[in-house]
Specification:
The chain has 5 helices and 5 strands. It is of the alpha/beta class.
């Protein structure tokens, strides 16, 4: 019984010591699009790696396209066999709240590769099946001589994307105030 009291006190002191949760920005990471069908498997691997790299940033709450497809597919299958709708309600709610999207393309450049990553605001009429980027806030191009070099560069690239998405927008300068009325002669 004494062990339970000690564990309970330790858990209570740990809960008090932890900082309050910071609101994280919801970011949807779309599939990396391969410019050439021969790069499709590389693009899929890059999608997972980019999601993972962005997910390490504690300021972001990352939704990855392959995971969303899998959840929606599971829910569709569950609905077909009559066992309910599955977890789509919570997923759909999070997708609706998502305001930021990351979209990328991969292409060959000679013997090397080029990964272009754009990130910005979600399209106004984007849906779970067609999430897309409306206005790019940041864009980066990563060139690499080989696949391994490209994958090794992803954490730095993801940090740049996160910083670019989360930097405060430039404040709109206040409208200039009109000059005071001239001090003319007052009527007597």
């Amino acid at each position: 019984m004494r062990a339970l009291v000690v564990i309970g006190a330790l858990a209570a002191s740990t809960a008090v010591a932890q900082p309050a949760a910071v609101a994280r920005k919801l970011v949807y990471v779309d599939d990396v699009v391969a410019a050439d069908q021969a790069l499709a498997s590389d693009a899929a691997a890059l999608t997972s790696a980019l999601c993972s790299a962005l997910g390490k940033d504690k300021r972001l709450d990352v939704l990855c396209a392959p995971d969303i497809r899998q959840i929606l597919g599971f829910a569709a299958t569950a609905a077909m066999v009559g066992s309910g709708t599955g977890p789509t309600g919570a997923v759909m709610e999070r997708l609706d709240k998502t305001q930021l999207v990351v979209a990328s393309t991969l292409r060959k450049d000679g013997a090397g590769f080029v990964l272009v990553v754009k990130a910005g605001t979600k399209g106004a009429d984007a849906t779970a099946e067609a999430m897309y980027l409306d206005k790019a806030l940041v864009a980066f191009e990563q060139r690499a001589g080989g696949q391994r070099v490209l994958f090794d560069a992803l954490p730095g690239l993801a940090a740049k994307v996160a910083d670019g998405l989360l930097k405060p927008t430039a404040a709109t300068p206040p409208a200039p105030t009109p000059p005071p009325a001239p001090l003319g002669d007052k009527p007597r």
